[in-house]
């Protein structure tokens, strides 16, 4: 899966996720095996939080955008 995902649903998480926003995905094979995904949400915790994977779709970004977002 891509390093970045686009939020397509935020039901049950309106304070944590913004529909249409790109989030950085953090690798978490155990979570993904259970249908979850770890992202750095609006709280900004660098360890990220788990959310149901069906709230997101993977996105590929241009290299310049990737570099900028990876530093943020």
What does this structure look like?
The chain is an alpha+beta fold and 72 residues long. It has one domain (4-71): SH3 type barrels, CATH 2.30.30. The chain has two helices and five strands, in the order ββαβββα. The protein has helices spanning 29-33, 63-71, and strands at 4-7, 22-26, 36-39, 49-52, 56-59.
What key phrases describe this protein's structure?
5 strands; globular; 2 helices; alpha+beta; SH3 type barrels; five-stranded antiparallel beta sheet; 72 residues
Number of helices: 2
Biggest β-sheet: count, sense, barrel? 5 strands, antiparallel
Order of helices and strands: EEHEEEH
Could you tell me the mean pLDDT? 93
CATH class: Mainly Beta
- Could you tell me the strand content as a percent range? 25-35%
Low-confidence stretches: none
Distance between the termini: 20 Å
Helical residue percent band: 10-25%
Instruction: Please identify the structural class as seen in this structure.
Output: alpha+beta
